[in-house]
DNA sequence: GCCGTTTTCGGCCCGACTGTTTTCAGTCG
């Protein structure tokens, strides 16, 4: 049983306990442990094998350590089995309805014997819900609206999609004359790969007018809530938008609060409490006395903390780093010197070799690798050895004409279903740069996929593994692969792992990149561009690298190509 | 259920908004 599965058991336990109105702190303990295990770079199984205490994981105490060890080894979690017998899965679905929390859901289950979303809808339509104590006509309507919303299955946006909304809304809201400051916050500002709600923070002496302007934004379908300082609306194409308007002296504190993460804020407020201070969205207070809040730096300073880049605010390692005075200096997009994964019209790209080169030069890059598909990827018109050598001869001729820019002879070689690579070593040996990737057989069992990738890493001519989990956000789950083993092998063979900057891919994800850094495996951020415009995607990759705490030195393609070659430690310079 | 330089019990972040209330509980972020 892997960490994700263990975490899922703990989450479900928390759901049921919450539904049963258990001690909310006990519920939180299960949720905290679930999160900690999801983010832990080492598998529980290998910790147990190495006899490392699970209590090393913050949020896992003696009790949970024992339960988790048993779960990992036997696959059985007696407490959860028992709870499942008390509260069926279909009842837990009630908690997913917006506006229904554990208290109301439990009341519906207890008083009206409602055990599914269908039964809930029927009860609302028959006006039985409004008869319950604490419920009313409006609640009944809100539940029906929540049910309708749940059925449209609105998923999290890609960060790149959120960015389009944000830019549009910032431009729109800035037209209000009374907006003094305006900023997008939330998971968007933290650069998460996907974004749920859009959060905006404004400073204005006239909140009503700002909210009035937002209410007139053409794509709004519904105003969910509107008070004196806070407004929530739903946009026609799905996402919810929250706007908070605060006075100038609260901007820093409110930005911090509204950027989150929630867990980061919980730690901050706890630390404030230890010092006899209180932090809320209006500032830092000693008793009733305001002592800071104008900027985020001011707020952090009251706790002797440095300003944290938003990408790090996940309550993972940032506080421990800050306490040790070792907050990493994060990579910046301008530090990227080369792009080592892209396609041309020779396979499934939409631009020629020359166009990709011109596009890369226009973006200030110093080198690129052309990595068209290999022959097995026939749908993409993948290249065999003969066509590749022809392309590489063309690249040699092009390089003679280029000044201060290098085009590398590369290939994206397919890792075959049965194992092995799609091109022979004699061909690969002539390449400057080889990325290997899994395209087929993604449903194979974990052992098989892992073995294929480990073999590829062992090939002396492979430089990196591209899009190492195969996920497509909102469309395709990552294939089942033992990343721990892959990272270990990459380290042993001196290979790199790709962070694919395509906004739908972004794998390795932030957690896996952080694990790679721990293992000493360098990351290469690549666009996998299939046209010139997509060369711009590099910034999405950089954002995820920042979330992983990576600095310039951790990312291979911040270096000049000569240094990359040295790092790779193979074959003579070209 | 976790945690500890206010340690083995008694805390556990904080506030906005809504609806059903007539002072507050529930939900959300």
How would you characterize the overall build of this protein?
The structure is a single chain. The protein has 24 helices and 17 strands. Strand 15, helix 21 and strand 16 form a beta-alpha-beta unit. The mean pLDDT is 92. It binds one DNA strand of 29 nucleotides through helix 2, helix 4, helix 7, helix 9 and helix 14.
User: What profile does the largest beta sheet have?
Assistant: 7 strands, parallel
Measured distance between first and last alpha carbons:
46 Å
Number of strands: 17
Strand content: 5-15%
Mean pLDDT: 92
Q: What are the segments in which pLDDT stays under 50 over at least 5 consecutive residues?
A: none
Q: Specify Rg, calculated over alpha carbons.
A: 26 Å
Question: What keyword list fits this structure?
Answer:
single chain; 5-stranded mixed beta sheet; 574 residues; alpha/beta; DNA-binding; globular
Give the arrangement of secondary structure elements:
Elements: H1 3-19, H2 24-39, H3 44-49, H4 62-74, H5 78-86, H6 89-92, H7 102-112, H8 117-125, H9 137-151, E1 157-158, H10 159-173, E2 179-184, H11 186-189, E3 194-195, E4 198-204, H12 207-215, E5 220-226, E6 230-235, E7 240-246, H13 251-259, H14 262-274, E8 278-280, E9 283-286, E10 289-292, H15 296-301, H16 318-323, E11 338-339, H17 353-362, E12 367-370, H18 385-401, E13 406-414, H19 425-428, E14 433-437, H20 446-458, E15 464-465, H21 483-493, E16 496-500, H22 510-519, E17 523-526, H23 538-547, H24 561-568
Parallel strand pairs: 4-7, 11-12, 12-13, 13-14, 14-15, 15-16, 16-17
Antiparallel strand pairs: 1-3, 2-4, 5-6, 6-7, 8-9, 9-10
Helix pairs in contact: 1-2, 1-5, 8-9, 20-21, 21-22, 22-23
The structure holds one DNA strand of 29 nucleotides.
């Amino acid at each position: 049983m892997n960490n994700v599965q263990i975490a899922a058991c703990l989450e479900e336990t928390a759901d049921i306990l919450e539904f049963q109105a258990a001690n909310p702190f006990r519920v939180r303990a299960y949720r905290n442990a679930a999160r900690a295990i999801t983010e832990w770079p080492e598998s529980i199984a290998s910790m147990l094998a190495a006899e490392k205490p699970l209590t090393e994981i913050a949020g896992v105490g003696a009790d949970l350590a024992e339960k988790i060890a048993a779960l990992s080894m036997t696959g059985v979690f007696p407490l959860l089995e028992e709870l499942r017998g008390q509260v069926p899965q279909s009842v837990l679905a009630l908690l997913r309805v917006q506006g229904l929390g554990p208290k109301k859901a439990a009341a519906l289950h207890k008083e009206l014997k409602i055990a599914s979303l269908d039964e809930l809808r029927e009860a609302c339509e028959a006006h039985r819900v409004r008869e319950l104590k604490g419920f009313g006509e409006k609640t009944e309507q809100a539940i029906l609206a929540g049910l309708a919303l749940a059925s449209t299955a609105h998923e999290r946006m890609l960060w790149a999609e959120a960015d389009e909304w944000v830019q549009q809304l910032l431009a729109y809201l800035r037209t209000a004359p009374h907006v003094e400051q305006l900023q997008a916050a939330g998971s968007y500002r933290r650069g998460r790969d996907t974004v749920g709600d859009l959060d905006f923070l404004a400073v204005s002496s006239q909140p009503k007018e700002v909210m009035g302007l937002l209410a007139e934004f053409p794509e709004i379908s519904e105003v969910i809530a509107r008070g004196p300082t806070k407004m929530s609306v739903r946009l026609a194409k799905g996402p919810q938008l929250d706007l908070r308007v605060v006075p100038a002296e609260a901007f820093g504190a409110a930005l911090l609060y509204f950027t989150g993460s929630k867990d980061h804020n919980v730690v901050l407020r706890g630390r404030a409490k230890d010092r006899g201070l209180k932090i809320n969205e209006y500032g830092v207070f000693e008793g009733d006395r305001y002592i800071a809040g104008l900027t985020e730096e001011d707020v952090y300073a009251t706790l002797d903390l440095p300003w944290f880049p938003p990408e790090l605010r996940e309550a993972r390692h940032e506080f421990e780093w800050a306490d040790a005075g070792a907050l990493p200096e994060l990579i910046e997009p301008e530090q990227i010197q080369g792009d080592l994964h892209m396609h041309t019209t020779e396979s499934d790209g939409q631009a020629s070799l020359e166009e990709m080169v011109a596009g890369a030069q226009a973006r200030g890059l110093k080198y690129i690798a052309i990595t068209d598909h290999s022959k097995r990827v026939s749908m993409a018109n993948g290249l065999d050895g003969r066509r590749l050598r022809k392309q590489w001869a063309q690249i040699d001729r092009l390089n003679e004409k280029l000044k201060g820019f290098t085009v590398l002879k590369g290939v994206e070689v397919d890792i075959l279903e049965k194992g092995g690579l799609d091109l022979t070593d004699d061909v690969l040996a002539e390449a400057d740069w080889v990325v290997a990737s899994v395209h087929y057989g993604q449903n194979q069992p974990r052992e098989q996929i892992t073995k294929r990738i480990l073999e590829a890493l062992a090939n002396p001519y492979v430089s990196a593994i591209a899009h190492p989990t195969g996920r497509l956000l909102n469309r395709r789950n990552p294939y089942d692969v033992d990343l721990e083993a892959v990272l270990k092998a990459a380290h042993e063979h001196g290979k790199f792992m790709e962070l694919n900057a395509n906004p739908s891919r972004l794998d390795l994800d932030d957690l896996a990149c952080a694990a790679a850094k721990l293992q000493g495996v360098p990351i290469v951020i690549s666009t996998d561009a299939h046209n010139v415009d997509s060369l711009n995607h590099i910034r999405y990759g950089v954002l995820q690298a920042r979330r992983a705490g990576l600095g310039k030195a951790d990312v291979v393609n911040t270096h000049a190509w000569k240094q990359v070659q040295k790092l790779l430690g193979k074959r003579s310079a070209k």
